[in-house]
Q: What sequence folds into this?
């Protein structure tokens, strides 16, 4: 990549918007995943009995079951949320930046 | 504290050593062998087809870069869901109930992080190996050498664990000799990779993932059908044969340091496994790379939910079932040991729900699973040797693709033979620590360099080299001084380092080392490396200048 092109793209408002928005989005989702997972294992580390509470009175199923499955589902849903926005909005912005870079 | 951490990881080692320990050779299992022959025939047919399409180095390393996101997601799942995770995690659920679910969750949560942080950047910057990305703006020779060393170490450790597991499993399932089984796996893996390259490897993984998910789905549905698809009924039945403790967290995670360290090892380790990272170069662009992770996370997560149901199914249908009881062992030890050990829980369940025919199918799937995983590993190891060491370090980039591909094929054959020999040497060794060590090195050496090369403009060659080596050494030394090697392998009474997973310490050492040796680096070349970050950042964010796909 030539230096002129680097400078042009670097100062392109679309590029600035893309990188800022995506980085904010990616970091937010990362933190959400970390909080969910470490929240889950640290709950177990500090007090395993919380997840051992029955789901309803008299049931054998504990609240740990839907919570555990929920962590698995949340990982999948979070990837879905990211891919949806990145493959739509972010890729449209990228296409615009690329078109401009080619034109200039 | 020490006791707690040992408890924590006794379960982890449990799944890791899924397929180690003494096993008894079983009588020849004909329906399993027939189904396995069909699988081998089909995959060799695919290898022949792929060989005709594998003409260039790009075809060999990345299947021409034309795999779709869905196919790649399936192949990633096929790469990641090993026989150890299928049999080991269902065995852990079978033995400890809820703890099996906690353990499997750790293996899943690295995937979203890979998507948010590295997947598309990797695709935009790299060509064939993750070292392409790590060395993008740094000095080729030292960084490639370190990255290749990290890759090859990870691959060999992982390969040994898989080969030993394969030998034991095949002995159990098919009644073949251990050596015959290991040689068979090694030879098939060499054939797939040498002739069919990434294209054959990808399709072997896709077919295997499909078979494994179908088989596991059938088992889970068969179990649930017994209980009118009511989980409360299944759990009630399971609690009646065992006790209520299987419904709550047991001793798997019991102290915060170990919990965090295990989490870091699994998350960053997954994001530093060379055979996983390499899969991102098989798709055409960042969009497909993202879709790959989305599908892979879905398949892997679904698979872990199935193994949970399968484990509970085994509690109600296999545990205490006289058909699967190892009476010789019961006479000595008491309790309800099952034939072949707890790791056979899922295999016995397949017989309980589907008879001899389905038992044969699941056995063949387990074998196929091993083949798919070792093929991916070998290809990643061979690429590190040919692309990073031969083409970039030894020849300084002055070689053509055909020569590089030839070296890669030779490396595949050599790695295959090494894997067979190591598989035989380690038959009766305690190898429970190997997968853990592979994850620790991937998390402490490969991942920090890769991650900081993408996100930190001030990274320099010196920082990456010293910090990465520090992470690698810390991980290796702490594993050796820890309970898995110092006590379990070497037989000392007390571990010098109390934790089985060193990731919290070794990953920190790597990041701090890289930071320190980068910021204190004022050499002329380091200034250039910092300046080159801008152009690299633009390419990683937009894909301008990235490797494209080739049409076949």
A:
């Amino acid at each position: 990549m030539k230096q002129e092109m680097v400078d042009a793209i670097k100062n392109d408002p679309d590029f600035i918007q893309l990188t800022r928005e995506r980085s904010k989005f990616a970091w937010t989702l990362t933190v959400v995943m970390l909080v969910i997972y470490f929240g889950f294992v640290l709950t177990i580390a500090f007090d395993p009995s919380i997840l051992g509470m029955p789901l309803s009175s008299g049931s054998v199923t504990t609240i740990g079951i839907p919570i555990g499955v929920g962590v698995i589902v949340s990982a999948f849903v979070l990837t879905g949320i990211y891919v949806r926005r990145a493959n739509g909005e972010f890729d449209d912005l990228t296409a615009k930046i690329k078109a401009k870079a080619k034109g200039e | 504290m020490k006791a707690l951490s040992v408890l924590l990881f006794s379960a982890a080692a449990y799944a890791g050593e899924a397929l180690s320990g003494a096993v008894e050779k079983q009588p020849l299992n004909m329906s399993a062998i027939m189904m396995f022959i069909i699988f081998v025939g089909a995959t060799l047919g695919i290898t022949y087809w792929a060989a005709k399409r594998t003409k260039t180095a790009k075809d060999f390393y990345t299947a021409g870069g034309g795999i779709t996101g869905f196919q790649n997601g399936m192949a990633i799942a096929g790469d990641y869901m090993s026989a150890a995770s299928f049999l080991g995690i269902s065995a852990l659920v079978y033995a400890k109930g809820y703890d099996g679910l906690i353990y499997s969750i750790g293996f899943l949560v690295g995937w979203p992080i890979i998507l948010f942080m590295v997947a598309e950047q990797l695709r935009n910057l790299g060509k064939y190996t993750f070292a392409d990305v790590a060395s993008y703006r740094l000095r080729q020779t030292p960084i490639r050498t370190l990255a290749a060393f990290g890759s090859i170490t990870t691959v060999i450790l992982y390969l040994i664990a898989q080969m030993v597991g394969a030998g034991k499993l095949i002995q159990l399932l098919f009644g073949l000799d251990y050596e015959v089984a290991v040689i068979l796996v090694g030879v098939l893996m060499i054939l797939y990779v040498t002739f069919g390259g990434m294209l054959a490897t990808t399709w072997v993984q896709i077919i295997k993932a499909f078979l494994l998910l179908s088989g596991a789905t059938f088992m889970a549905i068969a179990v649930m059908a017994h209980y009118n698809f009511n989980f409360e009924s299944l759990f009630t039945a399971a609690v009646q044969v065992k006790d209520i403790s299987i419904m709550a967290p047991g001793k798997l995670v019991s102290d915060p340091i170990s919990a965090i360290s295990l989490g870091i090892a699994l998350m960053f380790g997954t994001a530093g496994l060379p055979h996983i990272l390499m899969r991102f170069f098989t798709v055409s662009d960042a969009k497909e790379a993202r879709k790959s992770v989305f599908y892979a996370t879905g398949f892997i997560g679904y698979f872990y939910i199935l193994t949970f149901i399968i484990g509970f199914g085994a509690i109600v249908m296999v545990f205490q079932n006289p058909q699967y009881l190892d009476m010789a062992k019961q006479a000595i030890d008491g309790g309800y040991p099952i034939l072949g050990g707890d790791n056979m829980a899922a295999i016995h369940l397949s017989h309980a729900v589907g008879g001899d025919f389905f038992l044969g199918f699941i056995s063949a799937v387990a074998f196929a699973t091993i083949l798919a995983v070792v093929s991916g590993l070998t290809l990643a190891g061979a690429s590190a040797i040919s692309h990073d060491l031969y083409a970039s370090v030894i020849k300084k980039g002055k070689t053509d693709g055909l020569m590089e591909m030839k070296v890669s094929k030779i490396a595949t054959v050599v790695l295959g033979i090494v894997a067979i020999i190591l598989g035989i040497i380690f038959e009766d060794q305690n190898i429970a620590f190997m997968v853990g060590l592979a994850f620790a090195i991937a998390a402490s050496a490969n991942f920090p360099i890769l991650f900081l090369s993408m996100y930190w403009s001030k990274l320099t060659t010196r920082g990456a080299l010293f910090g990465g080596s520090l992470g690698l050494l810390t991980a290796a030394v702490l594993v050796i001084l820890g309970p898995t090697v110092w006590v379990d392998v070497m037989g000392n009474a007390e571990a010098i380092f109390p934790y089985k997973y060193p990731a919290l310490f070794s990953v920190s050492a790597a990041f701090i080392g890289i930071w320190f040796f980068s910021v204190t680096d004022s050499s002329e070349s380091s200034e250039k490396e910092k300046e080159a970050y801008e152009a690299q950042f633009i390419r990683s964010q937009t894909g301008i200048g990235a490797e494209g796909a080739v049409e076949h």
In short: Chain B touches chain A through 56 residues (CB under 8 Å).
